[in-house]
Write a structure and sequence with these properties.
Elements (H helix, E strand, L loop, with lengths): L1 E8 L2 E8 L5 H19 L7 H7 L11 H16 L25 H8 L8 E3 L2 E3 L10 H18 L5 E5 L2 E5 L9 E5 L8 E5 L4 E6 L5 E3 L2 E3 L16 E6 L2 H11 L4 H11 L3 E4 L5 E2 L6
Antiparallel strand pairs: 1-2, 2-5, 3-4, 5-6, 6-9, 7-8, 9-12, 10-11, 12-13, 13-14
Helix pairs in contact: 1-5, 5-6
InterPro entries: ApbE (IPR024932), ApbE-like_sf (IPR003374)
Protein name: FAD:protein FMN transferase
Keywords: FAD, Flavoprotein, Magnesium, Metal-binding, Transferase
């Protein structure tokens, strides 16, 4: 029997769908929600006592926030993305959101943007045996884009350990599945197509895999008379001229997240070349709303 549960987690809507016996649903749902709750409390920037919030609160004080092995592994993952993206993937750019309104219009002067950039830079983060430290007051980290896929991968591992063979966990633009649906049908991820009502929804099969979309063409911004995504450069503070969105399917949601996160920060042709070399299924939408990749609709 299919059981569904929807909650809010990490500032996003999260849906769990799993097939199990009626008597097992409450226990298995409890395990999944317990793991999500644990990781939200531990890592979400929305939770005031999380590791990330404590690092932010201690910025500029000289006090390190201790990191356990799980936390260090996530910091290592983010550092790898930062290096692979030529330092454009940077969780300290959260501050730059304040320079733009909800429609993506710049509401700060060039001088104010340059001033904000003094508080941006993953290279400024100090990682030692004592833990993590942001050296300047006002600096901020936001790991939510990486924690969400890590969290649903962790839920999948817990459910597989409990013997679940058919499940999907979705959160925001991330998803992961266990097997197919019980009747053999494919798990499907719906994607909105940027052109026309006839092809408004594109569906991607996701069986036993992870999916992540980074960027959102529907929330694109107009900057200097061009379309841009909401990825801001830690170098100049302005939108990165890359793909509006990139979606990737991989063995885990975190792997898909890493690939999509890096690709959307490259120039459009460089992103296409890089994704092709990875050999993973992907779809990307460029700044002219054209679709690219093996998953793009024909």
């Amino acid at each position: 029997m299919m059981h569904r549960k929807r909650i809010n987690c990490f500032g996003s809507s999260c849906q769990l769908a799993l097939v199990c016996l009626q008597g097992e649903a409450e226990q298995l749902t409890g395990i999944a929600l317990g793991e999500l709750g644990r990781l939200e409390a531990k890592f979400s920037s929305y939770h005031p006592e999380s590791v990330i919030s404590r690092i932010n609160q201690a910025a500029g004080t000289g006090c390190f926030t201790p990191l356990d092995p799980e936390a260090r592994s996530l910091f290592d993952f983010v550092t790898a993305l930062w290096e692979e993206s030529s330092h454009l993937f940077d969780p300290t750019t959260r501050l730059l959101d304040h320079c733009y309104d909800d429609q993506g219009q710049l509401n700060a002067t060039d001088a104010q943007v340059r001033g904000m950039l003094k508080l941006v830079g993953w290279s400024q983060l100090q990682l030692t045996d004592e833990g993590a430290l942001l050296p300047q007051k006002g600096m901020l980290l936001d790991f939510n884009s990486c924690i969400r896929p890590y969290a649903i991968d962790s839920v999948r591992r817990r459910l597989v350990k409990e013997g679940v063979q058919h499940a999907m966990i979705e959160m925001g633009h991330d998803a992961v599945t266990i097997g197919k649906q019980a009747d053999g049908a494919n798990w499907l991820i719906g994607m909105r197509h940027p052109w026309g009502s006839r092809t408004a929804i594109h569906r991607i099969k996701l069986n036993g895999k992870g999916f992540a979309m980074r960027g959102d063409f529907e929330r694109r911004i107009r900057f200097r008379d061009e379309n841009f995504g909401r990825g801001f450069s830690p170098i100049d503070g302005y939108p990165v001229p890359g793909m509006l969105s990139v979606s990737v399917v991989a063995d885990t949601c975190l792997d898909a997240c890493g690939a999509a996160s890096i690709a959307r920060l490259k120039t459009e042709q460089a992103a296409i070349n890089w994704l092709d070399k990875l050999g993973l299924p992907w779809i990307a939408i460029d700044r002219e709303l054209r679709c690219h990749g093996p998953l793009a609709p024909a």
